[in-house]
Amino acid sequence: MNLTQLMSALDRKTGMAMDASAKVEWINEAIQAISTERDWPWLDGLDSFNTADGTASYDNPSDWMRTRLITVAGAPAQRIDIADGDAYSVAFDDWRSYYHYALEGNDITFYPTPTAVLAVKHRYVKQEPMLDDGTDTPLMPSQYHQAIVSYAAARVMERMSDPRAQTFDSEYERWKKRMLDATARGQQPTRVRVRAGGGL
């Protein structure tokens, strides 16, 4: 569902006529809350770029929320605090021949400063976009969009001290269980099937 459809679904769920801006706020709050409950697979991001000789800092992706792994020239880089990076020598001998990185604001800073063009892969968790146009849609797959409606409806009813808040919270928990179950199934390794008599 896009934002317009989510707003209509929220109206139907609550049975209340709300100001459009209020509905947008409730829906965006629901999306952001759900997105931070865990690292959902639809929030996986990959940014690939090359370093430049003499350049240490690079921008994070615009939808970056949290870094999971950075590799430089195929080798994992180790995360450190920015203060620790500033305290180290830039000589590669002091770094045991692999890169470190620090995150500050919207920047990734590598230590030591790269002196060659190297391939970087940055695996990160995306941030759900804020919806403001009627055609905007969340990153969450459409089959789970009712979870957004249930969560938003629960918060609206909670504000109104309406007992239906508990009902909508229970609905959301059931949607979350479906999402968690689907995520777990997607992460399970494929089982090797052996036909009877097929062993040695």
Kindly describe this structure.
It is a single chain. With 200 residues, this protein is of the alpha+beta class. The chain folds into two domains: 3-40 and 140-186, no CATH class; 43-126, no CATH class. It is 36% helix and 20% strand. It is built from five helices and eight strands. Strands 1-8-3-4 form a four-stranded antiparallel β-sheet, with no helix packed on it. A hairpin with a 2-residue loop joins strand 6 and strand 7. Helix 1 (3-14) packs across helix 2 (20-35) and helix 4 (145-159) runs antiparallel to helix 5 (164-187). The longest helix has 24 residues, at 164-187.
Which characteristics define this entry?
200 residues; alpha+beta; 2 domains; four-stranded antiparallel beta sheet; four-stranded mixed beta sheet; 8 strands; 36% helix
Short note summarizing the structure:
With 200 residues, this protein is an alpha+beta fold. The protein has helices at residues 3-14, 20-35, 82-87, 145-159, 164-187; strands at 44-50, 57-59, 64-72, 75-76, 78-79, 100-104, 107-111, 119-126. A hairpin with a 2-residue loop joins strand 6 (100-104) and strand 7.
Q: Number of helical segments? A: 5
Oligomeric state as shown: single chain
Poorly predicted segments: none
* Overall strand count: 8
Task: Tell me the distance between the termini.
Answer: 53 Å
Query: What is the gyration radius calculated from CA atoms?
Result: 23 Å
Quickly give the structural class. Answer: alpha+beta
Strand-residue proportion: 15-25%
